[in-house]
Amino acid sequence: MLDNNIKDQLKSIFANLHSSLCFRMTGTRDESAVAQMREFLEDVAASSPRLSVETAHETGDAPEFEIIRDHTPTGVKFCGIPNGHEFTTLLLAVLNADGQGKNLPDPALASRIKALRGPVRLRTFVSLSCTNCPDVAQALNVIALFNPGIEHVVTDGAVVPETVKELGIQSVPTV
């Protein structure tokens, strides 16, 4: 799914990962969508021996995956394949989960995030062509990474059109 140029860049980006990170994928009845997500995640995971892919037996409306660090859920999830502008959000989420990303909060803000009471489940609806969506998704991913009581799902609205319609979402990003 990813071209060789991108795969080579990913090897460089993920060369210094310290943690064991897993993309735990859940499926849907749409076997084609599940196969596409698995291929995408396996391409990303092939860039580092510290990355892996596993499939859980749950099903939902659309394929989804969570980033697991050292066998512990991070609270960062993606519903749909994070291509387009959200590809950078995925890369940053992996690096941030490993503790070496960017835009991480200073100790004072990190302490405030950790003090938030959960459980809180946030879901950000995005469009893969939106240039503003990654900033919102990345900020909420950091909050989920710093507080185990918070979960954030970056959701490609195009893969759950019924939910978008049901919620009356007319623009993105929508949290």
Detailed description of the structure:
With 175 residues, the protein is an alpha/beta fold. Helix content is 38%, strand content 25%. The protein is built from six helices and six strands; from the N terminus they run αβαβββααβαβα. The protein has helices at 4-13, 31-45, 86-97, 107-115, 133-146, 161-167; strands spanning 21-27, 51-59, 64-69, 72-79, 120-126, 150-156. The chain has a six-stranded mixed beta sheet, covered by helices on one side. α3 (86-97) packs parallel to α5. The protein is globular, with a radius of gyration of 15 Å. The model has no long low-confidence stretch (mean pLDDT 94).
Question: Got a strand count?
Answer: 6
Poorly predicted spans: none
Q: How helical, in percent, are the residues?
A: 25-40%
As laid out across the biggest beta sheet, the strand order is: 2-1-3-4-6-5
Strand share of the residues? 25-35%
Instruction: Give the integer mean of the pLDDT values.
Output: 94
Q: First CA to last CA: what distance?
A: 29 Å
- Helix-strand makeup class: alpha/beta
Instruction: Write down the overall geometry.
Output: globular
Q: Helix segment count?
A: 6
Largest beta-sheet details: 6 strands, mixed
